[in-house]
Design goal:
The protein is built from 10 helices and 8 strands. The protein is an alpha+beta fold.
């Protein structure tokens, strides 16, 4: 164990429960008065390179439908997904694993929702927006290093925001053509969030990529122009 061999490998070699090996290791540290330091692959703490494209998407998911639990004995990132959208659930888990592969990830099903959870206290390093209370009740701003990533991968950030707190719908209307009333359908995107700061991050990024938008109300952004919807369809698309 002092050579750094993981508990799991030691347990397999000696045909012992992992809990027993973990207890041995704990007692050995106590005897030598060593403080336990859990290993991590946190990019902010280790300087490790990570998938910035996946992070931009995950940042959008977090700002929309994510939160972090950070307590003395409980640390995890949760991203909430609609249970009827397996593609979104898979994309959320894939992004988490690409940013930090080491922590354990699982899914918790409750009602019509799937909670994708990743267990490590280092998610607070990756999301400095974490804090007490609801996001719309406190200031939300990107750190300089996050801004660099979003500027480099704006579409992934937009996609994460839409996949969390947005949607693509089909509206319809009728017009009188040559005396006959005809029905016309047209798609549009909506993004809804109670945080004015998150709304501003979304619209600023839309401006960056040339998407026209308008404010339906203080918490709702609409994208309806044909060229802009086509751009969104190319880079974002509906949730599935």
């Amino acid at each position: 164990m002092r050579q750094g061999i993981p508990n799991r490998t030691v347990a397999e070699r000696l045909n012992l429960p992992r809990g027993t090996v973990g207890w041995w290791r704990s007692e050995d540290r106590k005897a030598r008065r060593e403080t336990y330091q859990q290993s991590t692959d946190c990019p902010r703490c280790t300087g490790r390179l990570f998938d910035e494209r996946a992070y931009a998407y995950l940042l959008g998911l977090y700002l929309g439908d994510g939160h972090i639990i950070s307590k003395p004995k409980q640390h995890h990132l949760s991203v909430f997904c609609n249970a009827t959208q397996p593609g979104l659930i898979a994309a959320a888990e894939d992004a988490i694993r690409k940013v930090m592969p080491m922590p354990r990830v699982n899914q918790r099903h409750k009602g019509g929702c799937v909670e994708v959870k990743s267990y490590t206290k280092h998610w607070t390093c990756m999301f400095p927006q974490h804090g007490p209370g609801k996001k719309h009740e406190r200031s939300i701003a990107l750190a300089p290093w996050q801004r660099v990533i979003v500027d480099a991968h704006p579409w992934e950030f937009i996609r994460g925001l839409i996949h969390s707190d947005g949607c693509r719908i089909t509206n319809w209307t009728t017009r009188l053509v040559a005396g006959e009333r005809k029905r016309y359908e047209y798609p549009r995107y909506f993004f809804t969030n109670l945080s004015g700061d998150i709304i501003r991050l979304f619209t600023d990024t839309l401006d960056q990529v040339g998407v026209d938008w308008k404010r339906a109300n203080s918490h709702n952004i609409s994208i309806a122009r044909k060229a802009s919807v086509a751009l969104m369809d190319t880079h974002v698309g509906p949730k599935y």
